[in-house]
Write a structure and sequence with these properties.
Length: 572
């Protein structure tokens, strides 16, 4: 079954739901006209449909391998990557000063999502490079920018991020990698990093690693961490790959899915590196890359959901099984109510997750273009929701895709299972979804709830305006928003953060459910209250939005009952 990029869906969301026109009205993004955006989406769609999607199974069936210290990538990946790089898709949002397109992150998010639908394993490579480009643009010295950014922007070189160590996963401050001054402005970086996505490849001239390490005078914990750029090949006086650096890929992980993406254990033995940003300020610099990647990973989840949905829909339209329960039906399993329930849930949640991610990207663009603190706060607030809900949606939709296939979904040849296996890690890497939820319930409410309340005010204002034309849809959204407002107030009232953390995950999901209702209502209004988007909005608002009540009840229970269970109770 061929993949078809949902270009019309992105254009509708840009025009009617997330307000790309507001971004284009700024001086910074004035060139991203509707005609240019349409052309970008159309060309990206062609790349994804014709070049990347045919590589999807290759990566799963012929994984990346480590042979004599060299990473050999899956068949066709080198050609696929070259098409990505030559088309400028690595650098869509990179600043034009370094050769980038300078397009809005909103457009980049849509393109990256398409690429994730087509071939997630390969898309992860340019996503990492995009994050590194942004980190260097914000924090690197002019000399480092001059050497590295043109190469990364062109796709000639690739970038990675190195945080995790065997003893330091989510607790990054426990890292042991050290960096010692060489006396010439460079540093000797020594240590081991694990779970390094695309730690090496055989199709770029160089691989540039952003590595967190501790200087000799670095204090314990995250406040003593610095960030270093450590290339596979040290650039010569002309900026070309020169001497091999003292680093290597020790091994590649054997994974549940995402087989085409090599996940490396990296060893640094006094490798030459350059400081990025200020000493002991590495976490702030790395978070620039991580926040970019978190939105990108949310898009990966949505992209896989789209691919899995298209796969399941094609099967449901073709597969005949049992008597059709409706008059004049197609005779295929899409006539069955439970199959239709699954497909409607998949489609409705994809729309909700996609709208949240694009709204986050639009806020990032407005922050970039205006420097306005309110836009910065909105972008920061929506980032953990976009990441967690986007990836949870990817996992749930891929699992439902297997279910729609029935027994054939459990058979690898159909390809349904690959979506489920590939997307599972997205809820784990770039900060687990539990950590995203804790971030939302704690750090993102440090403003006293100002960013949260601003969103809730907008949702309620739209629901109020829709009461006259779509009362049956507007009223539930308004009521759900009031319940969410009470949950935010409860969170703010808990000074013991562990009380918040006990319900952080359902709090995030409840917030996402309400945002989804808001965006579905907005889509129905744009359609005039009569049509396929209105019918989908009705399904979401009447069947999925009500989940918010149970989620928010869970969110506001506190931690007492959790800790009443003893370790012995769990083992009983």
């Amino acid at each position: 079954m061929p993949y078809r990029a949902p270009v019309d869906e992105y254009r509708f969301l840009f025009d009617q739901v997330v307000g790309l026109s507001q971004v284009v009205d700024t001086d910074r993004f004035a060139e991203a006209t509707p005609d240019m955006t349409a052309a970008i989406l159309a060309e990206a769609a062609r790349l994804c449909e014709e070049v990347l999607y045919p590589l999807q199974r290759n990566g799963d069936l012929s994984p990346a391998k480590l042979e004599n210290g060299v990473v050999r990538t899956s068949p066709g990946y080198a050609e696929g990557y070259r098409a990505i790089a030559d088309g400028g898709w690595v650098s869509i949002s990179a600043h034009p000063d370094h050769g980038g397109m300078g397009l809005p992150m909103t457009v980049t998010t849509a393109v990256n999502e398409m690429m994730s639908s087509a071939c997630l394993s390969l898309q992860l490579n340019p996503l990492m490079t995009q994050g590194q480009i942004e980190a260097l643009e914000h924090h690197a010295s002019d000399d480092l920018k001059a050497i590295y950014l043109p190469k990364l922007v062109s796709g000639a070189w690739a970038g990675t991020m190195n945080l995790t160590e065997p003893q330091a996963g989510s607790d990054v401050g426990a890292l042991r990698t050290k960096a010692e001054p060489n006396g010439d402005g460079t540093y000797a970086v020594t240590g081991q990093k694990i779970y390094i996505s695309w730690g090496d490849n055989d199709f770029t001239e160089n691989v540039c690693h952003l590595v967190l390490a501790r200087l000799p005078d670095g204090v314990p914990g995250t406040k003593g961490i610095s960030l270093f750029l450590v290339p596979k090949f040290i650039p010569d006086e002309n900026g070309n790959p020169g001497k091999r650096n003292s680093l290597k890929v020790v091994s590649l992980e054997h994974k549940m899915g995402l087989h085409g993406s090599p996940t490396a254990v990296m060893q640094y033995d006094g490798a030459t590196g350059w400081l990025v940003g200020k000493p002991h300020d590495g976490m702030r610099a790395m978070f620039t890359m991580m926040n970019n990647a978190r939105l990108g990973v949310g898009g990966q989840g949505i992209g896989v959901a789209e691919g899995a949905y298209q796969h399941a829909l094609a099967y449901a339209l073709d597969r005949k099984q049992g008597r059709t329960p409706v008059d004049g039906g197609s005779g295929s399993i899409i006539d069955h109510a439970d199959v239709r329930r699954m497909l409607a849930t998949m489609k409705a949640d994809i729309f909700a997750a996609r709208a949240i991610a694009l709204a986050c990207a639009q806020a990032i663009d407005m922050q970039t273009a205006t420097g306005n603190a309110n836009w910065a706060a909105r972008a920061a607030f929506l980032t953990p929701i976009a990441k967690a809900f986007g990836t949870d949606t990817g996992i749930a939709v891929a699992e439902m895709g297997v279910q729609v296939h029935g027994g054939m979904g459990f058979i690898e040849e159909t390809g349904a299972a690959q979506y489920s296996r590939d997307v599972r890690v997205t809820a784990i890497y770039e900060g687990t979804n539990g950590i995203q939820a804790m971030d939302l319930a704690a750090r993102k409410l440090m403003d006293g709830g100002e960013a949260a309340y601003a969103l809730l005010d907008e949702i309620e204002a739209q629901a109020e305006a829709a009461r006259a034309s779509l009362p049956a849809l507007a009223e539930p959204v308004w009521q759900a928003t009031e319940s969410l407002r009470e949950a935010v107030e409860w969170m703010l009232g808990q000074k013991d953060l562990n009380q918040r953390f006990a319900g952080a995950a359902p709090f995030l999901r409840g917030f996402a459910r309400v945002l989804g209702g808001h965006f579905h209502l907005k889509a129905a209004l744009a359609e005039g209250g009569n049509g396929p988007r209105t019918r989908l909005a009705r399904f979401y608002i009447t069947r999925l939005l009500p989940e918010h009540a149970g989620l928010l009840a869970h969110a506001t229970q506190g931690a007492t009952d959790l800790y009443a269970l003893t370790p012995e109770d769990f083992a009983a």
